[in-house]
Amino acid sequence: QVQLVESGGGLVQAGGSLRLSCAASEKIVSTMMWYRQAPGKQREWVALISSGGSTNYQNSVRGRFTISRDNAKNTMYLQMNNLKPEDTGVYYCVVQGARSDSWGQGTQVTVSS
């Protein structure tokens, strides 16, 4: 199973920006996604990017977040701008698999008001 390592999380003030990265241990040819989990809440889907570069976003982040991938580097990114306190949570990188999805360990994003 592919190994995924997220990085780039941290503490930022509302209105600030962060860029998350997800490095995969091997070439990824399937859809990649970001999920997040806020304290006390269920994990939720944030954004996805297909192997061909098509993207889609949860309504609450559309226009503020941008998902991208660099297939040559086996890496996916999430540029997060105009962050809000409700964006706080652990962000997970996910690779869609034929039988099961692969998940990273997560990176913490904290947005202070």
Q: What this model shows, in words?
A:
By secondary structure, the protein is an all-beta fold. Strands 2, 4, 5, 6, 9, 10 and 11 form a 7-stranded mixed β-sheet that branches. The protein has a 4-stranded antiparallel β-sheet with strand order 1-3-8-7, with no helix packed on it. It is globular. The N and C termini lie far apart (39 Å). The mean pLDDT is 97.
Tags for this model:
mainly beta; single chain; 11 strands; seven-stranded mixed β-sheet
C-alpha Rg (nearest Å): 13 Å
Portion of residues in beta strands equals over 45%
**Which spans of ≥5 residues are poorly predicted at pLDDT below 50?**
none
Helix count from the secondary structure assignment: 0
**Cα separation of the termini:** 39 Å
Shape: globular
Mean pLDDT, to the nearest integer, reads 97
- Going by helix content, strand content and strand pairing, the class is mainly beta
List the helices and strands in order.
EEEEEEEEEEE
Helix content class: under 10%
What's the story with the biggest beta sheet? 7 strands, mixed
The overall strand count is 11
